[in-house]
Amino acid sequence: MAFRVSAVQYHLHTITSFDEFAARCEHYIKTAEEFSTDFILFPEFLTTQLMSIGDGQGNALGIEDLPQFTEQYREMFSGFARKYNVHIIGGTHVLRRNGKLYNVAHLFYPDGRIAEQAKLHITPAEVEGWNMGAGEGLEVFKTDKGTIAMLTCYDIEFPEIVRMARAKGADVIFCPSCTDDRHGFHRVRYTSHARAIENQIYVVLTGTVGSLPTVDLMRANFGQAAVITPNDVPFPPKGLLAEGEINDDMIITADLDLELLYRVRERGSVTTWRDRRTDLYTDWT
């Protein structure tokens, strides 16, 4: 009923090859392995770092070029998941489907399976700057440690979709994020706490740090990882099991105990999931 999670505050910087990207990702995975983690979370738009490789003439690649790395990305993280016997949420990667770009979170299982969840809510900047499309449906994913969901950044700001994930059986939301300023960061952070309280779930959150000076929309990053709990005994008073140092290149680790969630849902000082007034408002089941 308990397992360990790690979240990476991934440092974005200019690179020259996919191999350099792979080596950096493996560094974080090896670090998490030293803590015997079961899940490792990378941030949203992780693979935009590949755009800094450029086209050979000194120009950064465009967002439309990212899908060309899909096979390498999937093979790399799938191989790492098997090699290190860990579940990896490989941040998000941009896929092209039916002529449209989608921002897609990937779960890599230790047995080689790969699951996907497209981002469902797209910010105005993603539409205007990159013409991103929105995903069409929510999935939850069963693992040998429990049932999880992957909701990316802006998604966590919508209570309905997290309520749906909880109704489908998710006890943990992994939220890869990428925010460029304090306002965006705190929107995601505060609503992550709200979602944990409303649904009596864990939220594992992380974001990008550093910068990609040649890549549009990725020149500034403001990030901090956190492992967030409901605000009730026996959890920490601030609802935080762990958090990183803002904008540092680092990884955080914490243990999630599902039995505590189930106990609080039944006998907590508040029972927010059980006490929903579905006679007054729609329940997303």
From TrEMBL:
InterPro entries linked to this entry: C-N_Hydrolase, C-N_Hydrolase_sf, UPF0012_CS
UniProt domain CN hydrolase: residue ranges: 3-258
SUPFAM superfamilies associated with the record: Carbon-nitrogen hydrolase (SSF56317)
Source organism phylogeny: Bacteria, Bacillati, Bacillota, Bacilli, Bacillales
Keyword terms: Hydrolase
GO MF annotation: an example: hydrolase activity
UniProt cross-references to Pfam families, sorted A to Z: CN_hydrolase
CDD domains in UniProt: nitrilase_Rim1_like
Family under the similarity heading: Belongs to the carbon-nitrogen hydrolase superfamily. NIT1/NIT2 family.
Transmembrane is among the record's keywords: no
Protein's name in the database: Predicted amidohydrolase
